[in-house]
Amino acid sequence: MFRSVIKPVALALSLAALSAPLAAQGSMQAMGNQPGKPPLSPRDSISTTVAGSAIKVNYGRPSKRGRVIFGGLEKWGNVWRTGANEATHFTTSKALDFGGKVVPAGTYTLWTKLEESGKWELIVNKQTGQWGTAYKASEDLVSIPMKVTSTNPVVEQMEIQVKPAGKGGEIIVQWDTYKAVATFTVK
What we know:
Layout: H1 2-30, E1 43-50, E2 53-60, E3 79-80, E4 88-92, E5 96-98, E6 101-103, E7 106-113, E8 121-125, E9 140-145, E10 147-165, E11 168-186
Antiparallel strand pairs: 1-2, 2-4, 3-7, 4-7, 5-6, 5-11, 7-8, 8-9, 10-11
């Protein structure tokens, strides 16, 4: 009797073990990644100190790959994950003041509201650990106007920078033909 139960269980376990790598390949391919090749949108991180505040950003770096990005892939009027795949995480060790909008020390996610008029907003959201399409507006802490300019040449792979400027710094997002900047001071 036990022999007849053990064989189906062993078969089921063997099939499950074989299907796990196939499922992982399927999810990689769904994200545009191919087994054995570098990811199309690799994770990157920056860590810097600006006016005494330790700042870290962890984000996915999508590439243009001949696509129309803003107004095409990323629709005007929508909230963009400001990167690829997992949500972009932002950590600061001190409070940052973005023109009267204060972000306390802590870890957040960054999103960007895209407007064709060039009035983009950097959104600092309290929810963390989520996939980049799981945006919850109810968790927004602040929405910060960004200065948007055109870049030349085209930026093929999206990048985020944090640079010192004045008594604080700038968060810079560049991709395709756009550069968006949010300026802050450290409190």
